[in-house]
Amino acid sequence: MELKDLAVNALLQNKKAALLIGGAGVAVLGLGLGYKYLRKPEKVVRVGVVSQLLIHPLKSGRAVSVALAECQNIGLKFGELQDRHWLVVTEDGHMVTGRQEPRLVLVSLTCEGGQVCLNGPNIEELRFPVKEPDNPVIDCRVFSSDIQGRDCGEEASQWLTRYLGAEKTFRLVHFEPQMRARRPVEMEPLFPQYEQVAYPDVGPVMLLSEASVKDLSGRLEKDVTVDRFRPNIVVGDCEAFDEDSWEEIQIGSVRLQRVMSCGRCIFTTVDPETGIINRKEPLETLKSYRLCKPSEKHIYKTSPLFGQLHTVKKTGILQVGDVVYKISR
């Protein structure tokens, strides 16, 4: 073959290869563009501002207001304080809440220098270590679910028993990361199968707006505060019950997914300032205008709806003053 023919053949082969490579590149680019345009872009709308962040370390105990919190899949955390990670139980491990012992709402549990600090009215402060690895792990029941807790010792038990002034003995337990958690889906089928919590009623994060609380207060003889409803995230600069329609929200780097409304019970009738239960208000008023649609009766039954339960799609840091964005597609 002459030099001229070899040159022509080489040129034709290179042209074929270039066409093949170019075609493959166009196909990949086309797929990428197709995915981009098939996937609906997110629409981000400012809907409010975080006005309070509240951690309830002790289930049914006083809230701890923080300026900043870590939002984990299992709930809010600040230092050694984690939301609903301490629980009062009977000697056989059944949970005790403000529904049975209303004065629990006056008990404050905080942490300082590796110590748990328990405080309540007319009783001396008790301190004990956060970590007590030699104490036994107790099998507990929260509603109908099994869960574990590390016993916090005899002194904590005596303190609670003396404070609550009951005939029976109470114990305090602490949930630790390696323990068997609860699955909300066992109580509420709307929750994802993989979701886990410690001692909250159902979900890891509850959100409520200031405006919704103000709207309710306007219908009552006596004003109520946010504390009565025990949310984690309080949102200002929005209208009453706007939060009902926030299916997905972004706060700082945190992404939250609404699962369901929070159905309210007799616990809302405990005054967080006095620890007295009236068994009537604001529950009766809520029932007059916040019942679910007939199509949702199988979920909420006769419970009025107030606040929204969320799961954490993306963890991160929350701060008071953060803008709340509603995400839609």
From TrEMBL:
Question: What SUPFAM superfamilies has UniProt attached to this entry?
Answer: MOSC N-terminal domain-like, PK beta-barrel domain-like
BP-aspect Gene Ontology terms: nitrate metabolic process
- Whether Membrane counts among this entry's keywords is yes
Is Cell membrane included in the keywords of this UniProt record? no
Q: Where do the MOSC domain residues begin and end? A: 179-327
Keyword annotations from UniProtKB, A to Z: Membrane, Transmembrane, Transmembrane helix
- Recall the GO molecular function terms of this protein's record: molybdenum ion binding; molybdopterin cofactor binding; nitrate reductase activity; pyridoxal phosphate binding
Among the entry's GO cellular component annotations, what is one?
Answer: mitochondrial inner membrane
**UniProt-listed Pfam families:** MOSC, MOSC_N
- Membrane-crossing residue ranges in chain numbering: 17-38
Q: What is this protein called?
A: Mitochondrial amidoxime-reducing component 1-like
Name the source organism. Answer: Seriola lalandi dorsalis
